[in-house]
Amino acid sequence: xxxxxxxxxxxxxxxxxxxxxxxxxxxxxxxxxxxxxxxxxxxxxxxxxxxxxxxxxxxxxxxxxxxxxxxxxxxxxxxxxxxxxxxxxxxxxxxxxxxxxxxxxxx
Length: 107
Prior knowledge:
By secondary structure, this protein is mainly α. It has helices at 2-14, 21-34, 39-50, 54-67, 70-74, 79-83, 95-104. The protein is built from seven helices and no strands. Helix 1 packs across helix 2, helix 2 runs antiparallel to helix 3 and helix 3 (39-50) runs antiparallel to helix 4 (54-67). The longest helix is centred in the N-terminal third of the chain and has 14 residues, at 21-34. The two termini are 27 Å apart.
């Protein structure tokens, strides 16, 4: 899991989005809370965390859409990675669900 996110952050940096070490650590926390199971929630959560300006947001979302294609999320070889053997983070109702709702609402 960490390798995929680290590679994605490198791709985002390559798209000229400035990502500090602190922001990269925050991105790992977003993935820990949201998991990889919901592409839209992950896209919005990482977008809020990593992109700061309107231009950066545009480049971030373009990079995300190229990096995390629908095929990657649907690919059976990645299912264990995406869902894990146990319940994925952010799937259980409670504090994590509230965080997702707040992130998606822009709070």
